[in-house]
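Intended use. Records such as the Polyisoprenoid diphosphate/phosphate phosphohydrolase PLPP6 entry shown here are meant for training and evaluating sequence-to-structure methods. They are not intended to support clinical decisions.
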Amino acid sequence: WLSKKLGVCAGESSSWGSMRPLMKLLEISGHGIPWLLGTLYCLSRSDSWAGREVLMNLLFALLLDLLLVALIKGLVRRRRPAHNQMDMFVTLSVDKYSFPSGHATRAALVSRFILNHLVLAIPLRVLVVLWAFILGLSRVMLGRHNVTDVAFGFFLGYTQYSIVDYCWLSPHNAPVLFLLWSQQ
C-alpha cells in the first residue's frame, strides 16, 4: 500500500509525472555501469599507490554488490510493482525482479565508502548521505521498487561495506593485483 502511494512518478500521467525525467537522471547516478566504468577509468589514470588502493577496493565493492544483488534477486524472484514501467537504463535478466534494490545497495555502499575514505567538508558529507537517501526514495517514487526492497537494499549495502573494509585489499595482502595495475 505505501509503495503504491509513494509511486507518484510511476507514469507521465501520475500526480508528479513531470518529475519523472529528474527521477530517471537520479536512476542513472546509482546505476552499476557508470560506477564500474568510472572506477576503472580512474584506476587506469591513477598514479599513486594510495589512490590505486582506494580505487581497487571500490572496484571490489562494486563487483561484490553486483554479485550479491544478482544472487539474491535470482533466489527471491519478487516481481516489480505493477505500476512500474520497464523503461530502465540498461537492464539485465535479473532486473525484472525487485528485491533487493540494487540502486539502494549501491547508494549505501558507495556513500559509506566515500565517507570513510575521502576527506570531505561537512556540507559535502551531508550531500553524499542526501544523495543516497533521495536515490532510494526515487526508486519507490518511480514505481521500480517496494519500500521493503529499498530498505533491505540500504541494509545490504551498509553491510557490504563492512565486508569490503574487513577484506581490504592493499599492496601488502594482494601484491599481484597492484602489480597488474602498475604495469599499465
